[in-house]
Design a protein that fits this description.
Strand 2 and strand 3 form a beta hairpin. The protein is built from 3 helices and 8 strands, in the order αβαβββββββα. Strands 1-2-3-4-5 form a 5-stranded antiparallel beta sheet, with helices on one face. It has a 3-stranded antiparallel beta sheet with strand order 6-7-8, covered by helices on one side. It has one domain: Bacterial Pleckstrin homology domain (PH-domain like, Roll), CATH 2.30.29. The chain is α+β, with helices and mostly antiparallel strands. The radius of gyration is 14 Å and the shape is globular.
Length: 124
């Protein structure tokens, strides 16, 4: 991940093998990580059962907030691809009982079709 991507808040793909070690105790039996993205220290982890948002806080990173969103709570989603002058992609998730959507920006070369397919398989 480049410094510009970090400053712009753009997400990049994460190695799933490393995440399996880090999240082994968080995942339930039969749950596995399908894809994941990182923005600086924070992560969005898509499993076969839910979306896990990891917010790492503080200078040392010892304080962590894990937010778990079951796919059945996601009402709809949108994915916007990068344009000629717009170098980032964007995903919006509308969660039940939340007025504003969750928004995440991704780098231009992110596999948005795969991400869209993953969301569609679990939400539709």
């Amino acid at each position: 991940m480049s410094l510009l991507d970090i400053l712009m808040g753009n997400a990049s793909s994460v190695n799933i093998d490393k995440l399996n070690k880090e999240f082994g105790e968080v995942l339930i039996e039969g749950e596995y990580i399908e894809s994941a993205f990182a923005v600086f220290r924070d992560k969005w982890i898509f499993t076969n059962k839910r979306l896990i948002l990891l917010d790492i806080q503080g200078l040392t990173g010892n304080k962590r907030e894990y937010q778990s969103i079951p796919y059945r709570s996601i009402n709809r989603f949108s994915i916007e691809t990068a344009g000629t002058l717009d170098d980032d992609c964007e995903m919006k998730l509308w969660i039940r009982d939340m007025e504003a959507p969750l928004v995440k920006e991704f780098k231009r070369n992110t596999d948005l079709k795969g991400l869209q397919r993953t969301l569609a398989e679990h939400i539709l």
